[in-house]
Amino acid sequence: MLDETYLDSAFERSRTIEVGKEIPPEEPDDQRRINGKELSRWLFARSKPAADGSLVPIQVWLVGFDIVGDFFFPAPKEGGTIELSFEKCRFRGGLALWGVKGVPSFSISESVIQDDITVAGAGIVGELQIMNVSMRSADIRLNGASLFASGLVCAGGVKLTACEIGKCELLGLDAPRLEVRGGKFGRLSVSVTRLGAAELESFSCESFRITRRGESESTASKGFPVVINDCEIGDEFVIAGLKGVGIKIRETNIHGFAHIFSCELAYLNLAYCKVERDLRFYDLACVGNIHLLRTSAAVFDWSNSPAKDESPKAAARADRFIAYRCQFGEISWRDLLLERDADFTNCVVSLDVDVDRLCCPILRFNNATIDRDVTFSGGLMDGIFFEGSRARSLSFDLKDLEAPVARMELNLAGSSIKSLAFGSEPFAETPVAILPPILNLIGCTYESLPRFPAPQAAEERLAFLKRFAAGGTNPSRVEPQPYFQLARQLRSAGYLSEANQIQYDEREAARMEFWRRGHWRQYAGLTLLCGFIGYGIGTRYFRVLWVVLLLTIVGTLVLAPVPVTGNPLEAWLWRAGASFQEVLPVAKLSPHYAAFFEEKPTDSLNFLQNAYFAFHRFMGWLLASFVVAGLAGLTQRPSSS
Predict the structure, then answer these.
(1) What is the DSSP letter of 24?
(2) 8 A C-beta contact, residue 194 and residue 165
(3) DSSP 75-108
(4) How far, rounded to the nearest angstrom, does the alpha carbon of residue 329 sit from its chain's CA centroid?
(5) Is residue 601 part of a domain?
(6) Count of domains forming the chain
(7) pLDDT digits (tens, 9 = 90+) for 105-132
């Protein structure tokens, strides 16, 4: 076994004391073996000041040692310092630093430790490094360690590189930097008193936690990030209580749950991550953006805990939320306040989406695919955008809140929804008040009638349907598709009169739109169709009979001066029949009427009478063309602008 004499002679030659170039074998090797307590005693003796009182810094590199028993890092004598490194060593016991202050640096690399590493109440001025250390059955505990930078070239911090550690707990960590690169952990737990930055990369562990210890503010509020990259984490991932930090998590697989709660962050980014169970944010405040990119989770839950009877505005705030091309099993948001938009563009949700008491300017679910139900309830938003998306059902429930504010917009353009529902207890008798001022349904398809509170008054029900089809109270422009979509569903449900009314309203809205835009030809055409045949919609089609009757009466009066044989009644009936036949373009009621107008009309009628009957016949042909177009459904279709 090696002794202190060997250490003395080797140290005098070089600060590197090397007895082997590889890690000692499993069996003790007398040529490398040294007792841990003797090594501690030798280091303590070496740390005393020089005879002239000057400091004698001890820098010792131990390579290839087989250390038997526990090794306690010696506290140097007053005025002395020790900088110690172990390389390719085997510790057959434990390693401990108890109450040691003023240590420039301490490192272990490419070594095997069969028991625990314990650092308690130690002050390491420089850097603690643990690199390529195997501790498969042992623990590392840094309890109350205070790590400070003091202007050294490699100033301060904790590094764990390619380590295999069963249980690693860094409690009350006070350091400018934490680095974990590679390695495998059973449990990695860090509680932070102060931390400048943290970089954790390419490691795996069963349980991972970063929490804040005490009430001190983190120096990460100065802009240092916490970066977690390319890691494999088992059942538990927890970040709690951090303040002022920015967190980036990238290409990390979490096989259990991921919870981030009670934090006040500068920003939060998750990119290309996979959470097999629930991803949960609770009481999370963020002054910057929360950004999820191509991240998946079985459940995405975000909620806050306002006091009783408190509005969502009292909950923790966040600036903006963006989720792009993410996949979730279920989304549940409650009691949130966002200063800017919440955006779920191109996301896929295999179950339900439940958004309750959300306050934000705009909520977007554009080009999203949601296999089941979407519910928006009790929120205060300027707009909800669901463009080009798909869902089984979409439900809006205002609960006990007021009607939508004057600037609110609901945009469902190009979406495909099986059913729509609008609900609010205070507006059960006036459901039209539930609809937002701007409602974009252009290209929106649904398979059943929109559900809404059923008022007792039929006119209230019809008012809701009219405003729904029109696009709210302040539509930007008239679009026919929402009218026809609603009319189609009304007919399918057996509400024929309401369907005809909605379709008629679309034609009237289009006519007035042409007026506002100065398209006089289209406006005149629709006006004639409206007046003569009611666009050929429903019973309004029979307006043409009133026009025919009016023309027949006028024609009869025009023929009054024409002498007709027979008594006065027969004479007037003959004139009425002749006038009526001239309205009919093709049908011939009597050859006598045709003969009267075709043989020598100039002998019986003067110029004005002939001019009128020319107009009379023209109106007959015009009405006939309208009737034919109405029967073909051409007058019920949108007109080109």
Answers:
(1) P
(2) no
(3) PPPTT-EEEEEEES-EESS-EEEES---B--EEE
(4) 13
(5) yes
(6) 2
(7) 788 888 888 887 777 666 666 667 787 7
